[in-house]
Design a protein that fits this description.
Elements (H helix, E strand, L loop, with lengths): L1 H5 L3 H14 L3 H35 L3 H14 L3 H17 L6
Helix pairs in contact: 2-3, 3-4, 4-5
Length: 104
């Protein structure tokens, strides 16, 4: 599972952990593994949101506001991380407030 995570194969790592949990007979071990799985899934979601935010920032820095705005809007609505969602909302509002257009 760690190798899969290192390779960026997050969904496969979660599936492997799910299989391990399903095969575990001891309830205490299974419960602990399920808690670890939830933590891992949250971490993966946060990392994805951070990467998407960084991608949107890159668009903004290239002055591609027409592409950055929907990226920030999507993050503000869907990010599982409240801080990333807040920052994305602020960036979307800045683009709207200043009326920035795509520089092409």
């Amino acid at each position: 599972m760690n190798r899969l995570l290192e390779q960026g194969r997050d969904e496969e790592a979660l599936a492997a952990l799910d299989r391990f949990i399903a095969q575990t007979q001891q309830e205490e071990v299974r419960s602990e593994m399920q808690a670890q799985r939830e933590s891992l899934a949250k971490g993966i979601a946060k990392n994805r949101a951070a990467a998407a935010y960084n991608d949107a920032i890159a668009l903004f820095n290239r002055r591609d506001y027409a592409a950055a705005l929907p990226a920030f809007e999507k993050l503000s609505a869907e990010s599982p991380d409240a801080e990333i969602a807040k920052k994305a909302r602020e960036m979307a509002e800045e683009i709207r407030r200043t009326g920035k257009k795509t520089a092409r």
